[in-house]
Amino acid sequence: MTMSKKITALLTVLLFPALAMFTVSAATPSISTPDCGMRGMTLPVTILSDGGPVQGADVYFVLNSGTPVHGQTDTDGKVNYKPLLTGRLNITAIYGGISTSKEIPIYEPAYGIDLTVIGKSTKTVAPGEDATYLLRVTNTGNVTDTINLTIDGPGSLNTTSTSLRLEPGAGAGRYLLLTVSGLTTAGTYTTAITATSTSSISESVRVTTVVSAGGGGGYHGGGGGGPSPSTNIPVDTETGNVTSTTTLSTDGAKLIIPAGTIVKDAAGNPLSSSITIIPLPSTAASFGAIAAFELAPDGTTFSPPIDLLISYDPADIPEGLSESDLVIRVWDGTGWSTLETSVDTTTHTATAKISHFSIFALFAKAQAASSPPATVTPTEPTPSPAGTPASEPERIPWALIIGVIIILIIAGGVYYIYMRRR
Description:
Blueprint: H1 3-25, E1 30-32, E2 37-38, E3 43-49, E4 52-53, E5 58-63, E6 69-72, E7 78-81, E8 87-95, E9 98-107, E10 113-118, E11 122-125, E12 131-139, E13 145-152, E14 156-157, E15 163-166, E16 174-180, E17 187-196, E18 202-211, E19 246-250, E20 253-257, E21 262-264, E22 276-279, H2 281-287, E23 291-296, E24 301-311, E25 326-331, E26 336-338, E27 341-344, E28 349-356, E29 359-364, H3 398-421
Parallel strand pairs: 2-9, 11-18
Antiparallel strand pairs: 1-3, 3-4, 3-7, 5-6, 5-8, 8-9, 10-12, 12-16, 13-15, 13-17, 14-16, 17-18, 19-20, 20-24, 21-24, 22-23, 23-29, 24-28, 25-26, 25-29, 27-28
Helix pairs in contact: 1-3
């Protein structure tokens, strides 16, 4: 082996550990945290490096230029902090000798509820006939809240739980169907529905069901925009197997459930409650959709998937788009997911296979529709008492400096040996 090859091999062996150390230590950590925090509420913070969580990272929290509070990440790269004041919070993370910072606002938590009856709040039915009412509950505060629902009077809601956890903002609101049934005596019946926040704020609405003295009144859903009559699917109580094909229709939508379909409720049991299609014109308008419907009860599943048909008027398609741009999308809780959709231009219907109940909408957009962000209105920050200004941790990249020094020492030694042997 020639002298130059020996030197090359020696350099490779000696420099590899230093280069490896340089490569690893050069990764800059990042801070993952919500865009804002709330006074008195735990703020979760995750420190990442190379896309993965890191343990043992030093994290400093400075609220309103006050005294720094130190913490270290656990095995999941997490550390929590509870701000006791509103204002600006600076978060600085140090890992591997490298630091990074992020600043977020801290707001005063605010709670609020909006409970509304959509459509008519008074309906007339024949003795023994169901009356259905569409409700919407929205968290108008700026923090995630648990809304508890209670009913005073006849009726039941199409939800497996009367405790709803709602994110703030109109886009996270829930539509609910109240069904008043079993009234056989003529008269006027009032039902009060109350929504209560964890902060004890509450709001109530009332609906009135008038049972006529005789004769069949038919379904009184408030016109073409009302919910469909509740329909019981013939389901085997042991297997959940649909024993005969069932079709449910309302103005603008149709659901076809073939015999042999397995239908389960949110708990995974054979479905025993009735189903309903609820038109949501205000939801469609807010998202720029042609039509929107909620299929209830929430959490119902179908195997194999069933057909949902939504009708449309070609005149409602925006200028510049055509019937080939029509798609049915499903709301997944945070946004719209596009379903494979077939369009019949003769009957003016769009059809998609669905495997569970949720909110579905017909869009005339080639691109995916995004949900509007929830608007959070902060309160005016409360200044904290003056404290010792926190100096930002030094950002000297010691690992990089040490690595360069080691490389220079090794290179110098190799050069010295080479010169002696010439």
